[in-house]
Design a protein that fits this description.
The protein contains twelve helices and eleven strands. By secondary structure, it is α/β, with parallel strands linked by helices. It folds into two domains: 184 residues, 3-Layer(aba) Sandwich (Rossmann fold), CATH 3.40.50.620; 102 residues, no CATH class. Bound molecules: iron/sulfur cluster. The site of iron/sulfur cluster has 11 residues, from helix 4.
Length: 336
């Protein structure tokens, strides 16, 4: 009976290392399905801050399949409470890798694939890819023996697919450290062009974004995906534990804020002038409404006027409030 094709599941960011890991498998006639993960924190495929890059051009060129997987709430949960802690900002990189590996393991089992690969290189990043960390993440993901790192395989103990002869260990690499010299040489050998330079990480590595996220987690035991999406848009102000303002910085922010706002939430703007859209989230007391209107006036084209009429609306209800634009000290005091 003919043996079924050998199949590997790859964690795939679309960066150089993950491409090379896949190409090393294809060279051994191993079928690869590449998993590209998405989260609410900037790993959009077209987001320049992202860990991920558009995987399709390289997949089409070299002949492997790609599957996009949204990590959704599972990812939000590890960002809030990572078992292995946060990095410098809110990035839970170790937990993130483990979660992606667990998803890959589940997928491997569901489709009857043989093992999982990643483009990890030993010692490439100071902490996350040291030898014992690589062993630990494989163990935590339940993939001990079934997780192959083709770029550093010769420096790591042989995995089950190597021991069983599914993969020829001699054709794998033994790359260690941060120099990308060998990877660039391999890219030339494989004819891999236009590969992206290493990405800085997702939005969770950004200190401004992380500050806004911490504020959201502090005041909301449960967060909606809309709240997470809104963290990317506008200036954020914490008026009270129960109330927050989001003030658009430009037309793009205004459109996003209007698109994400719940009809039950209050929107403020200065009519007939260049004006931000301000969204009031949470409790709308008289004081909160007055302050949000003063912030709206402050960021409008009428900011130098002594008094500005600001329109608010909530569903069908609408009204106006005339306020003095908020002074800088008040605005700065509430900025998240
Ligand atoms: S930067 Fe860290 S947390 Fe963000 S996607 Fe990359 S590994 Fe995951």
């Amino acid at each position: 009976m003919a043996r079924k094709n050998i199949q590997a599941i790859s964690l795939f960011s679309g960066g150089l290392d993950s491409c090379l890991a896949v190409l090393l498998m294809l060279r051994q006639n191993i079928e690869v399905t590449a998993l590209t993960f998405m989260t609410h924190f900037g790993c959009d495929l077209d987001d320049r801050s992202s860990c991920s890059h558009n995987p399709y051009p390289v997949a089409e060129k070299f002949g492997f399949s790609v599957k996009l997987m949204q990590l959704g709430q599972k990812f939000v949960d590890i960002v809030r409470e990572p078992k292995f802690g946060h990095g410098k900002n809110m990035n839970p990189c170790v937990d993130c890798r483990i979660l992606m590996l667990r998803e890959a393991k589940e997928y491997m089992e569901a489709v009857g694939a043989d093992f999982v690969i990643t483009g990890e290189v030993m010692g490439q990043r100071p902490f996350s890819q040291l030898k014992d960390k690589l062993t630990m993440t494989a163990r935590e993901a339940g993939l001990t023996g079934r997780l192959l790192r083709p770029l550093s395989a010769k420096l790591l103990p042989p995995t089950i697919p190597e021991r069983e002869g599914l993969v020829d260990r001699e054709l794998l690499e033994g790359i260690n450290g941060r120099s990308r010299h060998r990877q660039m040489e391999m890219a030339r050998e494989f004819g891999l062009e236009n590969y992206p330079s290493p990405a800085g990480g997702c939005l969770l590595t950004n200190s401004d974004f992380s500050r806004k996220l911490r504020d959201l987690f502090t005041h909301h035991p449960k967060v909606a995906f809309t709240d997470l999406n809104l963290l990317r848009h506008g200036r954020h102000f914490r008026f009270s534990p129960a109330t927050k303002f989001i003030v658009g910085r430009d037309q793009g922010d205004n459109e996003k804020i209007l698109a994400y706002a719940d009809p039950a939430e209050t929107i403020c703007e200065v009519k007939d002038a260049g004006s931000p859209i301000t969204l009031i989230q949470g409790a709308v007391t008289d004081e909160a409404l007055q302050t949000a209107c003063a912030f709206t006036a402050r960021y409008s084209d009428r900011k130098k006027d002594a008094r500005v009429e600001v329109t608010w609306s909530r569903g069908e209800a609408e009204g106006t409030v005339t306020v003095a634009p908020a002074p800088e000290s008040v605005v700065d005091g509430l900025r998240v």
